[in-house]
């Protein structure tokens, strides 16, 4: 299943990219991530790997599998985690709206376990939950930049636009 999450933020595109691309320090802008372990030699860019410790006790490992600095875009895949999915990946990128405003977009692909039941679970539970989490990550860039503080646990920014295809 594929879905897209879009948020617009009052941040210059270069700064939005800098925050979204800071792969091994996502805890500063993500309200579900308590801390991050960098598992690769590089902390960002192609093949960077991180372990995110979520506030709810879940740990997930993610790897950057595509990186395009020029287009402000990268793609990550779940390497390890206790989620009811066969595979999950997301492409994140930043578009310029104006010199001081950005659109941050996440295209997420989820291949659930459990056949039809898994498909239903993705549509009813995972899409809204993951969509909101991505939207809050994107809004977290603005929060962090304005306050200089990490986004609080379970903080919610403006509701993102979530669409399916």
From TrEMBL:
Q: Which InterPro entries match?
A: Polyketide_cyclase/dehydratase, START-like_dom_sf
Pfam families in the cross-refs: Polyketide_cyc2 (PF10604)
For this entry, the protein name equals SRPBCC family protein
Q: Which organism is it from?
A: Rhodosorus marinus
